[in-house]
Amino acid sequence: MKRLTLAIFVIAIFAVLSLFIGVSDVTPQTLLSNSEDGRALQVLLISRIPRTLAIILSGASMAIAGLIMQILARNNFVEPSTAGTVESASMGILFVTAFAPGMPLFGKMLVATIFALAGTALFLRILQQIPLRSVLIVPLVGMMLGGVISAITTFFAYRLELLQSLNAWMMGSFAGVLRGRYELLWISLILTLIAYIAADQFTVAGMGQDFTTNLGMNYNRVMTLGLIIVSMVTAVNVVTVGMIPFLGLVVPNVVRLTFGDNVRLAVPWIAVLGTGFVLICDMIGRIINFPYEIPISVVIGVIGSFIFLYLLLRRNARVA
Amino acid sequence: MFTNRVMNRQSSRFFARSAYTTLLVLALVFGATGILFAQDVEEVTITHNQGETVVPINPETVITFDLASLSTLNALGIEVAGVPDANYPESLSLYASEDIAKVGSLFEPDYELVNAMEPDLIIVAARSAAVYPQLSEIAPTIDLTADNTDYLNSQLHNAEILGQIFDKEEEVQAVWEDIAASVEAVNEVTAEAGTSLIVMTSGGEVTAYGPDSRFGWLHEELGFVPVIEDIEEATHGEAISFEFILEANPDWLIVIDRDVAIGQESEAAEQILDNELVAQTTAWQNDQVIYLDPTNLYLVMGGLGAIQETIDDIAVDLGIELDSDEEAVEEVTEETAEEAAEETPTEEATEESSE
After folding, report:
1. Radius of gyration, alpha carbons of chain B
2. Highest mean pLDDT among A88-102, B127-141, B229-243
3. Chain B residues with CB inside 8 Å of A21's CB?
4. Residue B336 to residue B19: CA distance in whole angstroms
């Protein structure tokens, strides 16, 4: 518990630092001096605080979505972007853009959620049909399914001349986050809290259907709850900031290496480390090409893929 | 036997000699007609970005993978037989129809179809420049990639090459004089208009473009003073935050909306930019935001027709009446009026694109 408090404290320092990185001149001095018609305060309220909140919300929720995904599929190398969930959500967004471009953001998110639900359910269904569930086969199947779904999406995007727009939506970036443009992400806070409350049930469900039923729990209900949480979190994130690759994979795995499979213990750590990972990567993206930005998905893609490879090639990966 | 053979040799020598003479005569005759034919199908040697190509004057079957050249040819009233499958702007909508052969994408030709059409001339540029070697084996091919650092001159140069090939040099000059006059008229206003920033919106994200970029000619040639000099050259611009626009605080904001394909005519770009930070800039407060047709700028990338249309659009926003091209300006204003009259342009566009 002490260590967790310390971790939260460190992340909080990073969050405060993040408030003072950007093109406009926002420093503690300019905030206090209150010169220049209070622009510093304005930028802080309109841009910096919302951006930092968005980072915290999406970092924590995507990492936890990854954890739940790993429990549902009973495999450590699965996360929304390696199970077809992200691709399905983006297909949903394309669907809305093509047929009802004027739909408000909330509606877009709902459609994306429905698509994400269907895609993830399909993935779990396919997994049931695979007799030998080797550790590496499962994410491979997920990536293949994601590949098929995104191929269909790409085809229609190409026909509708929306290919480059599709790429732009999927590119995860916090550059466009402003007051009034990220609030949907608060939904993922609620979902994260639900995941925490149901943590023990997920721990049990992680031990398999027979075991869960033996303990008198409704396995299917737990699975459905997990499915809904993962799909909604993914949809909300894809709609507001785009796709952040590897996050849901790297963070839960690092945490579980230390804490084992106890979900109640793992959830707070995953939330904190997920937030920290995204915060630091976004700060890097804002600093190295200042005053321009490098999208977070690029920064995390580079760092995350190295950690992913390390996890895959680790000597006892096959035992995981 | 022996005498016979001598006889034969003599006669064969005679025949050989007469055959020789006949051949010589024939060669002369055919040679002369050959020259006559050559004068019938005149040819011109074109020097382009990837070497020299001998091209027939007034080629019949023309295929272009370059939409800028298509725009020029269209402005000169020349029909093209094959074009790539792409999203055509209003002025080139003729080529969107299925009656015109679609010979591949903007990047990749459908070689079998190109071959089957037996073209007399193929034009490539920029996106399709890489397939020049393959296409030049099928038919005379020229590469008219424009030079972004000397945009208008290079566009004129390309137009002149086309004028030469299609024997329309005077027409090119006439269209060009109109453009030059418009450029001058725009320059007079932009010199006094203050600073400007070119941005492109796409899927909620904003990127900035500088004088060296593909849209740099708006700065360099139309005289819009860049608010920041050194935005690096990048194909899709530099990703920026809204704070960047706020701090740069341009007097004019030039917006290119890449999402316009969904048919919401700048609506999406306006939604993205309409926020508390951009609202504080001089450009937004003085209503000095110019939305440009992305198909002309981003897709067609030049050509006489597209350049004139882009400048006309800018002129309307700057409040300039172009003397040389009043009709075009009127047309544009009519179009905007029509759009305003239509209540739901979105539905139509969606139907179109979902077909």
Report:
1. 27
2. B127-141
3. none
4. 77
Of B203, B232, B275, the CB nearest to A178: B275
B205/A171 touch (CB, cutoff 8 Å), yes or no: yes
Write the CA distances from B353 to A25, A231, B221, B346, integer angstroms.
44, 29, 35, 10
- From chain B, the residues in CB contact with A97 under 8 A are 262
B136: distance to nearest CA of chain A, Å? 28
State the pLDDT at residue B29.
54
User: Is there a contact between A98 and B349 (Cβ–Cβ < 8 Å)?
Assistant: no
Asked if residue A266 has pLDDT above 70, the reply is: yes
Which residues contact residue B59 at a Cβ distance below 8 angstroms, ignoring those fewer than 6 apart? B119, B120, B121, B140, B165, B166
- Residues A18-38 have pLDDT tens digits of 999 988 888 887 777 766 567
- Tokens found for residue A23: 């093109």
User: Who among B247, B259, B276 is closest to A46 (CB)?
Assistant: B276
Render pLDDT for A46-96 as a digit per residue (tens, 0 to 9). 999 999 999 999 999 999 999 999 988 888 888 898 899 999 999 999 998
Residue B293: Cβ within 10 Å count:
22
CB A120 within 8 A of CB A84: yes
pLDDT greater than 60 at residue B350: no
**Closest residue of chain B to A21, computed from CA coordinates:** B243
SS3 call for B205: strand
- Give me the CATH topology for the region A77-243: ABC transporter involved in vitamin B12 uptake, BtuC (1.10.3470)
Contact yes or no for A295 and B239 at CB 8 A: yes
What are the residue boundaries of the structural domains of chain A, listed by start? 77-243, 244-314
SS3 A55: helix
- With an 8 Å Cβ cutoff, the interface of chain B facing chain A consists of 87, 202-206, 208, 232, 238-244, 246-247, 258-259, 261-264, 272, 275-277, 346, 350, 353-354
DSSP lists the bridge partners of residue B121 as B62
Question: Which two three-digit tokens encode residue B83?
Answer: 């074009």
Average pLDDT over residues A205-227: 88
Chain A residue closest in CA terms to B351: A99
User: Among A246, A235, A225, A245, which residue's Cα sits nearest to residue A187?
Assistant: A235
- What number of C-beta contacts closer than 8 Å exist between A and B? 102
Share of chain A above pLDDT 70, in %: 96
A102 part of contact set with chain B, CB < 8 Å? yes
pLDDT at A188 over 80: yes
Enter the pTM of the model: 0.79
Q: Say whether A43 and B277 touch across the interface (CB within 8 A).
A: yes
Measure the CA–CA gap between B28 and B24, rounded to whole angstroms: 6
**What is the rounded CA–CA span in Å between residue B175 and residue B181?**
10
pLDDT confidence tier of residue B119, bands split at 50, 70 and 90: very high
Among B240, B272, B277, whose Cβ lies nearest the Cβ of A46? B277
Interchain CB contact of A179 with B (< 8 Å): yes
- Sequence-separated (6 or more) residues with CB below 8 Å from residue B331: none
Residue in A22, A169, A181 closest to B203 by CB: A169
Measured CA to CA, the distance from residue B335 to residue B340 in angstroms comes to: 9
Query: What is the residue whose two structure tokens read 């009026």?
Result: B337
Q: Which residues of A touch B261 (CB under 8 A)?
A: 160-162, 165
Contact criterion met (CB < 8 Å) for A179 and B276: yes
> Shortest CA distance to B110 belongs to which of B102, B118, B120?
B102
Cβ separation of A173 and B205 shorter than 8 Å? yes
Q: Do B258 and A98 touch (CB under 8 A)?
A: no
Residue A291, preceding bond cis, omega within 30 degrees? Answer: yes
Q: Which of B261, B314, B262 is nearest to B288 (CA)?
A: B314
